[in-house]
Amino acid sequence: MIVATSSWGVVLALAMAFCWAGTGVALRGVPVRLDVLLVTGLRALVGMLATVLLVLLAGRIQEYRLLTARQVFFLLASAVAGGVVADVLYLSSLRLLGMNRCFPIVNSYPLFTVAYSAVLLGERITWRTLTGAAVVFLGVYLVARPKDESRGPSGAALGLGRLAGGVGMAVATAACYGIEAILISLGAIEVNSAVANSVRVPLVALIALPLAALRGACAELRQMTWRAWIPLAAAGAIGWGLAGTLWVAAVKAIGPGRAAIIGSTAPLFAVPLSMVILKERPTRLTLLGTALTIVGIILVT
To answer: What is the reported pLDDT for 282?
Structure first.
């Protein structure tokens, strides 16, 4: 039974990683001029509709009555850490550094999760887990390494200040995602994954959209075309709706540390998605990184 649960948790974490990669690709289609808080709030709004639909389809709506105040507190706290703070930092870093440079740094969040798990939850960390994590991170770096060290996503020169700011925000994003996993593990005990995720998502919209309005960013809505709405809606439905639910389920099944390490393989899935959507071709180092990542996953599991 334990083996079956563990194997299913690995599948859930890999599925989450695939959805997270799809979210990253979709976000590349969102105009960079849009305010990051507005993008975060709109994504969460779409994600909220998607999660409610998942709850209804699963027939779990009655489980809201079973939620305790403690569970709601931790789930909402995880939404603030991973949905509001981390998302704003991630989008800001993405615009400064670009996908290839930002994504590998953000996906170092399992290092924070493993450390938090050991300190706060008393989770035992084995050498095999640490070795597997190191191999996964090396593989992820080779897959999503920077292709142009001197320029940002717009093609402009990437100065030292811009680079330091972008890297700092990417590291801060990883730290927030790390604590998010711990908070989810505390709040989602004995709660359906879709129900737990549907508690988290609305708070992100309720915080981000009013803040965006205070900054005067809502005026940008009038300038948005369907070319902007489609990738934004896709990022919300896939990222918050599907990936968010899978993330909660994976954390429940195999714990925050292992779920985070396996979930960090998102760049591995970004490669085929970029090949299909962006017509990019993999290099030898990309293929080597893919192989290393698979070996790392085997060690972790």
So the answer is: 60
Parent domain of 38: 2-300
Which pTM value belongs to this model?
Answer: 0.79
β-pair partners for 151: 157
* Distance, CA of 46 to CA of 151 (rounded, Å): 33
At 56-91, the pLDDT tens digits run: 998 999 999 889 999 999 999 999 998 889 988 988
Q: For residue 3, what pLDDT band results from cuts at 50, 70 and 90?
A: very low
Q: Which two tokens stand for residue 271?
A: 């490669």
Cα–Cα distance, 95 to 36 (Å, whole number):
10
pLDDT in tens, 176-220: 998 999 999 999 888 899 999 999 999 999 999 999 999 888 888
Contacts of 170 (CB under 8 A, 6+ apart): 89, 90, 93, 97, 102, 105, 106
Burial level of 164, CB count in 10 A (0-12/13-18/19+)?
exposed
CA distance 106 to 253: 23
Alpha carbons 299 and 149: distance in angstroms, whole number: 31
Give CA separation, 33 vs 29, 78, 273, in Å: 12, 28, 24
Q: Measured between alpha carbons, how far is residue 160 from residues 151, 154, 163, 166, 167 in Å?
A: 11, 16, 5, 10, 10
123: CB partners within 8 A, 6+ apart = 114, 117, 255, 256, 257
Q: Considering its fold, how many domains does the chain have in total?
A: 1
What are 283's two structure tokens?
A: 């290099």
Cα distance between the two ends of the chain: 15
Distance CA 195, CA 290 (A): 34
Q: Is 59 left (phi over 0), alpha (psi -120 to 50) or beta?
A: left
47, 288 in Cβ contact below 8 A? no
